[in-house]
Amino acid sequence: MTLKLPLRPPPRTARTAGRQRAGIKVKMILPALTEATSPFFRPIKYSLFPPLGLATLAGYLGDDDEVALQDEHVERLDTDDEPDLVVIQVYITSARRSYELADHYRRKGAWVALGGLHVTSLPEEAARHADSVFIGPGEDTWPVFLDDFRAGCPKPLYRSTVRTLAGLPRIRRDLIKRSLYLVPNSIVVSCGCPHVCDFCYKEAFFQGGRGFYTQAVEDALAEIDRLPGRHLYFLDDHLFGNARFASELFDAMRGMGRLWQAAGTVGSVLRPGLLEAAVTAGLRSLFVGFETLDPRSLRSQRKFQNLRRDYGEAVRRLHDAGVMVNGSFVFGMDEDDPSVFERTVEWAIGQGIETATFHILTPYPGTRLFERMEAEGRLLHRDWDLYDTRHVVFRTRGMSGEALESGYRRAYRDFYRWGSILRGASTKNDPVAALRHVAYAAGWKKFEPLWDRVIRTRQVLRMRPALEQVLRGFGRQPEQPAEPTPEPRRARRPMPHAHGGVLR
Ligand code: B12
Ligand code: SF4
């Protein structure tokens, strides 16, 4: 693809303008979608994780550079400043707001760099609001851009081709306002996923290079060591995706005293040994992409890795190991009919799944699903605000769009009714597991007004001990050998020839 970009004079940074300051004045922004900034109600999900991608990019800046990082999900943006360089991370649902901010700063004369998932899918759209756009992950292109920028000759387009997590600078976690997040210790130790599901962002984002790669285990452990406290959340798409890496990591994490959550596939849970190693290392809740109970949909979405897997057995294995399950389900596949909502919810409750995340099938630009829908003339519009997995944006097959949206909302209501929560809890043999089920499910969904208050009074981080208590099963979950210290103790290093080597 060739991008037609308007030419703009080179940037007048502090250096190129001959001012006293040697470095660049950089502003990094994670813009929010409208819902996250509502004056009336703040869902807790937007105060969970800090902007890790931008903090990663900030690690490449020099000591002389001045950097401010703002996350609109948790704070009001200061847009009266005068940075030399503005860096914005664009998701599909925040694209409109991102472009608004980009236009604002360009009018003020700043050089605007846009990157992230949505920019990778639609670089030409983004380029209308940017001076430089970035396709794919930033670890290879971003430092090249910074050199170009300092030299006064940044390019309009940077495309990632080299995919590695080796030798990265330290993430600038000092820029993260920890007190504004329930889970400030989010971490990624791998990029992408070995699978190729049609609806997933992954194939589109990683085109032109490797689509799955991990850090060195040593580097992952070093990053874990730098995180204070006890709780971690691995944001990796599939932490178990490279079994050799995962088992070395889990072995080395034993005794660190960590409690953690992650995401993984049904297949990885069923694989003997890996789950057990993860639990010994502190895994207490896993996001699992079940997506659909219908094998025809799995096939048509190329989610082959879930075919012929015993979902029930996967849930049992997790529960037997003391791991809570956050099941992910997608509605609106062509094979779905109006009975899908009740069937799915009933199945999840009957399995004792603690929390569920439901989505309406959403064709993100750049994915195979999007191409298919577009070729079939089924896309209803390109209003990206509504591509949020809560609205129907394509012509449906097995039911009307209205039925799909109302069924989706009903699924949430039905799954999180008190009766359903208690029924799910009653599937547990152990009363502590049942109590943990009630506390966890109700904690997220039944106390939303409380979360709203906690967010407004900026007390979110204070709730973390409660989260840890629930994850620990109120102390009844098997403890790890080591008691954590405020600065967690050093990990056991993997043996030189250690044996061969999952959220949202
Ligand atoms: C954590 C997370 C969230 C968190 C917080 C997001 C945050 N603080 O960044 C919460 C819970 C709030 C969230 C909410 C939603 N999310 Co979300 N989320 C994620 C998740 C799991 C991890 C993101 C992450 O931190 N990655 C780790 C960091 C290190 O990587 P990164 O952020 O991608 O940054 C790198 C590159 O993208 C790049 N980069 C990024 N920006 C820039 C800018 C420049 C200039 C450059 C050079 C490079 C660059 O460089 C970075 C380093 O390589 C992703 C899945 C995924 N793997 O991306 C989904 C994901 C991003 N979410 C998604 C969606 C759909 C949503 C929701 C709409 C869901 C919903 N129905 O509510 C909402 C709304 C999002 C919004 N704000 O608009 C989709 C996005 C699809 C898209 N095309 O945009 C994803 C991909 C999930 C999926 N598989 O569908 N999400
Ligand atoms: S398994 Fe999950 S992360 Fe991997 S391609 Fe499929 S949907 Fe995406």
Kindly report the CATH topology of the largest domain: TIM Barrel
Q: What is the straight-line distance between the termini?
A: 32 Å
CATH homologous superfamily identity of the largest domain: Aldolase class I
Protein structure class: alpha/beta
Q: Helical segment tally?
A: 19
Q: Hey, roughly how much beta strand do the residues contain?
A: 5-15%
Poorly predicted regions: 14-20, 481-504
Top CATH class of the largest domain: Alpha Beta
The largest pleated sheet is described as:
6 strands, parallel
Tell me which CATH architecture of the largest domain applies here. Alpha-Beta Barrel
Radius of gyration: 23 Å
Short descriptors:
binds cobalamin, 14% strand, 19 helices, 504 residues, six-stranded parallel sheet, alpha/beta, 14 strands, TIM Barrel, Rossmann fold
Compact summary:
The protein has 504 residues and is α/β, with parallel strands linked by helices. Helix content is 33%, strand content 14%. It has two domains: 25-159, Rossmann fold (3-Layer(aba) Sandwich), CATH 3.40.50.280; 183-365 and 425-471, Aldolase class I (TIM Barrel), CATH 3.20.20.
